[in-house]
Amino acid sequence: MGGLIRACDAWAMDDERRPQPSSGKRKRLEDTVPIEIPALDEATPPVPPAERPEMIIVTGMSGAGRSRAANALEDLDWYVVDNLPPQLLPALSGMMTTVGAGVHRLAAVVDVRSREFFSHFMDYLRKVRDNGTDVRLIFLDASDAVLVRRFESSRRPHPLQGNGSVLDGIEHERTLLGGLRGVADIVIDTSNYSVHDLARRVRELVAHESDLALRINVMSFGFKYGIPLDADHVLDVRFIPNPYWVSELRHLTGRDSPVADYVFAQKGAAAFVDGYADLLIPALPQYVDELKPHVTLAVGCTGGKHRSVASAERLGARLRRAGFEVVVQHRDLGRE
Q1: pLDDT value of residue 247
Q2: Distance between CA atoms of residues 236 and 226, nearest Å
Q3: If exposure means fewest CB atoms within 10 Å of the residue's CB, which of 165, 195, 229, 244 is most exposed?
Q4: What does each C-alpha distance from 243 to 34, 178, 250, 264 come to in angstroms?
Q5: Is 265 exposed, middle or buried (0-12, 13-18, 19+ CB in 10 A)?
Q6: Backbone angles phi, psi at 183, to 5 degrees
Q7: Are strands 105-109 and 54-60 parallel, antiparallel or unpaired?
Q8: Measured on CA atoms in the order 289, 68, 216, 214, is the torsion positive or negative?
Q9: What is the b/e burial string over 21-50, where b = at least 16 CB atoms within 10 angstroms of the residue's CB?
């Protein structure tokens, strides 16, 4: 018992020696953040607010290209929901936001696959618009002959044909969708469209200017580690004398001025990289037209440390001056 009392007295003395909470104001949260570590809110760039939530409803005839249109919207960073029952449209629009990183551009594919739910589609569409959401209704159509041919080539039944033929299902669907086609904001007849033509048409209708900007990734690499698998173009700069064999430069990289100065002082090096950029500049915008908004330009030397790094930096800078959005990466830097 005496030992227990002595232990309790020791704990009490320890409590007296411990620093007590200040009676003043509580310290601000930012005062507790180490100097070397910025506060999270300051380190994270804010997401600019959208002016208004946008919703696109894709509907129309089965076989007219709804899935391809949805894929094109998804490529433009729209949040896409396929085969959505119409009664969920108001709830889904209520989840959208104009601030932060939430969903502010949403596309829903709604069609006769919803069966009996589809009969009240216009009522739910009206509720969404009453919520203040900017809604556009895109109706995809095609001729009966084209739709029959597409179903035959895919070897899938029409969702409404039942025990009848594909044409019976198409005629039934046209009857159900007749009124909806008349109130659509945009009607696209895909009879003479390829899948790429439809994707281009969707991009023309809904894309913002920033969505259509070409994004170029310039990547340096070392051939001894392999060519990047996702490279669209490969530039070989191994013809330039290697700074590795200059003892003063060996420990440096192509990002350092002495290395870059050495590389582009070599005969033909600067003209080669600049000429390559000038050759690409008129062709690069056509990638967007061909539905390829991302291009990777790979620049390689032996180890990916000196010549390719300096050349990639120079190439990226020249393309930026031409107005392109460019990211420069050095895949193998520091790998040796």
Answers
A1: 93
A2: 12
A3: 229
A4: 41, 72, 6, 11
A5: exposed
A6: -105, 5
A7: parallel
A8: positive
A9: eeeeeeeeeeeeeeeeeeeeeeeeeeeeeb
The confidence score (pLDDT) of residue 94 equals: 79
Alpha-carbon distances, residue 135 vs 43, 74, 293 (angstroms): 35, 17, 26
Query: 307: how many CB neighbours lie within 10 A of its CB?
Result: 32
For residues 217 and 327, what is the distance between their CA atoms, to the nearest angstrom?
A: 5
pLDDT tens column, 56-98 = 999 999 999 999 999 989 988 888 998 888 888 888 887 876 6
Compute the distance between CA of residue 300 and CA of residue 273 in angstroms, rounded to an integer: 12
pLDDT at res. 7: 47
Q: Kindly report the pTM of this predicted structure.
A: 0.59
Cα dihedral 309, 310, 314, 315, rounded to 10, equals -40
Name the percent of the chain lying above pLDDT 70: 79
pLDDT digits (tens, 9 = 90+) for 126-151: 888 887 778 899 999 999 999 999 99
Angle between helix 269-280 and 307-321 (nearest 10): 40
